[in-house]
Amino acid sequence: MNTTPMRRTLPRLLAFALSSLVAMVVVELGLRARGPASAFRVWPPGLEAELEPRAEIMSGVSGPALFRVSTLGFRADERPDDVELALLALGGSATECLYLDQEEAWPARLQAELGLLLARRVWVANAGKSGRTTRDHALQLSHLLAQEPRFQRVLLLTGVNDLCAWLAAGGQPAAHRGVDLSRAFDVVPADPALGRGWKPMALWQLLRTLRMRLDGAPLGQDRAGTIYSAWRAQRQGARRWLEELPDAAPALAEFRAVLLELSASATRHGTELVLVTQPALWSADLAPEFEARLWLGGVGDFQHRPGCDYYTTAALARGLALFNAELQTFARAHNLALLDLARALTGDPRCFYDDVHFSEEGARRVASFLAQGLSALEAR
Questions:
Q1: Residue 276 — pLDDT band, cuts 50, 70, 90?
Q2: Cβ distance 18 to 169 under 8 Å?
Q3: Contact (Cβ atoms closer than 8 angstroms) between residue 110 and residue 75
Q4: Which residues lie closer than 8 Å to 317 by C-beta, 6 or more apart?
Q5: What Cα–Cα distance (Å) separates residue 177 from each residue in 25, 92, 95?
Q6: Phi and psi (nearest 5°) for 302?
Q7: 134 to 32, 139, 255, 273: CA distances (angstroms)
Q8: Which end of the chain has less neighbouring CB within 10 Å, N or C?
Q9: What is the CB neighbour count within 10 angstroms for residue 310?
């Protein structure tokens, strides 16, 4: 057997592997010097996508809608050097405003409107992300407030994802997941103490961002929003309609405990936490044409499996009212500011294209309501 070709090839393969490894190390060090993986980022910095929401699916929304992420990982403008009031907006998809254009999302509108009211340079960092619960927000806040940039106030719009997760789990309180950084952040610093493997590498983060830009669905939902039609059809084909809510005491106790974590993080970093109640289209007497917009409120894996049980609109309205009442009680007990957005918008079909997501008109009204409330807080 002639082993001469193998003897000649093996050194070349080893040299190629070594040079590739050196190149990866050089690229990694160069990327880290730029800082993209030196801090926690909710979204991959530089991510940009254009969506084309269909008006017949999303009433009150017109495309195209640009979604752009800043170098700090927020759906926001870059932080101005001369900013006088910096706000962090935490929440789920109702804060994210995925299918609204960059400047139509309520955090961007709030930035403009509050700046005019105060005659000051305001910056609002939108950290909203679909499906995130109050526990995810607590994890986000503890890390975001410990790094630059600094924020004077944090707006927390939360409750509906906790409600839906509780109902989907059959009325059981959400299990304590512990430190789940992969849900809270798309970019995590490469720190062995965090218990992360190779994913935090800056090179991996860069490749992931490029893939997200190219794969046609960078934000987890399709560009036109056609998935909503499937979700609505599954709700309309419910196996059974549930009117009575499970015992809410354990879920509300968990909610209260996580709010306490959020409040402690804000206090520790000298930041004011402002709670915002969650509005929804749900009401006990919702007209059939607006019922057709709904898709939330299922039990089990209702987004992926047809034939699930669903809670009625009246039951969902009562459930969300419980979480909003808990927010109000917590705010009073801990002397926190609370802006009752639910009271201002709930049940108004002009403000929602589905259960809880805001139309363009809804985002305008959210921004106006919050700007007035924050202006009053600043005046104090």
A1: very high
A2: no
A3: no
A4: 280, 282, 283, 284, 346
A5: 34, 18, 23
A6: -70, -20
A7: 31, 9, 7, 13
A8: N
A9: 24
Asked if 45 contacts 78 with a C-beta cutoff of 8 angstroms, the reply is no
| The residue to which tokens 């969506």 are assigned | 51
Pairing between β-strand 272-276 and β-strand 309-311 as defined by DSSP bridges: unpaired
With tokens 């309180």, the residue in question is 173
Which pLDDT score, from 0 to 100, does residue 109 have?
Answer: 98
Q: Quickly state the pLDDT bin for 203 (edges 50, 70, 90).
A: low
H or E element at residue 274: strand 272-276
pTM of the model: 0.86
Query: What mean pLDDT do residues 168-172 have?
Result: 90
8 A C-beta contact, residue 27 and residue 325? no
Evaluate whether 120 touches 84 at the Cβ level (below 8 Å).
Answer: yes
- Give DSSP secondary structure letters for 286-312: --HHHHTT----BSSSTTT-SS-EEE-
What are 208-242's pLDDT values in tens digits? 555 555 444 457 789 999 999 999 999 999 999 99
Tokens of 191: 């720190």
**Residue 144 one-letter amino acid:** L
pLDDT at position 178 is: 56
Residue pLDDT, tens place only, 327-366: 999 999 999 999 999 999 999 999 999 999 999 999 999 9
Task: Using the predicted structure, report yes or no on whether residue 250 has a pLDDT greater than 80.
Answer: yes
User: Residue 169: CA atoms inside 13 Å, Cβ hemisphere, count?
Assistant: 15
Are 114 and 89 spatial neighbours (Cβ–Cβ below 8 Å)? Answer: no
Average pLDDT score over residue span 107-132: 98
> Radius of gyration of the chain from Cα atoms?
23
> β-pairing, 65-68 with 48-51?
antiparallel
HSE-CB for 305 with a 13 A CA cutoff: 11
pLDDT digits (tens, 9 = 90+) for 94-108: 999 999 999 999 999
**Phi, psi dihedral angles at 153 (to 5 degrees):** -140, 150
Specify the residue for token string 């709700």. Answer: 235
Give the separation between CA 272 and CA 331, rounded to whole angstroms. Answer: 12
Separation CA 346–CA 362 (nearest Å): 10
Query: What does the pLDDT average to over 146-159?
Result: 97
DSSP per position, 163-199:
HHHHHHTTSPPPP-----HHHH-SB----GGGT--ST
N-terminal to C-terminal alpha carbon distance within the chain: 89
